[in-house]
Amino acid sequence: MYKTFSVIAVLLLTGCAASPQGPFLGRELTWTPDRQRIGQTLRQAAADPAVWGPLLAAALLQLDAADRRLSDRLREDTPLFGSTATAQQASDDARDATGWLWLGSAVLTPGPDRAGEWLSLKGQVLAQEWIAAKAARGLTSGFKSLSARERPNGLNDRSFPSGHATTASVQAHLACLNLAYTTATPLTDAACRLGQGMALLSGWARVEAGMHYPSDVLAGWAIGRFFASSVRAWLGDRPADPAVDARVQNGEWELSLRWQF
User: Cα dist. 182→24, 102, 123 in Å?
Assistant: First the structure.
């Protein structure tokens, strides 16, 4: 069901694409970005409230065993899905739906007029975004091995962070970034929100299924968001100034906060 919603949403966007003569996804793509571009993009990604916010919430949940108590309550009551088995299936389906939305957003957004150039550019865009998603999953897997946190249901010690949440988050945010290259309409916004909703749903379902604690999911969301935002350096789209910047000047720390509208 979730996959169907994603496919329909992307197909509806084909009529909303901007002219290929204007800005389009990957127009300034590069495989060799300079250090300044990479650093600026990484700082901007780290300063995103959707990255540090979930990490802060995950840390706060460790106070007074709130993480475990919330996990136990949701696993026992399964308020949204009714059973752990249904929640398990829903988490898979919602994660997969974000994948279809990401692929569709990359392929159906505007590109070059010539078929050969279109195929080459789309292939490179997908490759770079796939690498970002793969890197996010790789980091999550590494943290799983280091933390060795037992799952709430006792299945194994691969609980932290959530791989489902990481994958769904990176795919959903990549889709939103890609959709920014279509003409802004209620449909494009709805498709982006759909992907984000599927990512949230997948993470919530993992908690109800007893596979993860809430902090596992929050950390997974943050990792996915960070890597999705970071790929902008390689796609060649210069990021906005970092929202938070820190530097040392004359032996003193200087912290600045900047907003761009």
Answer: 8, 14, 19
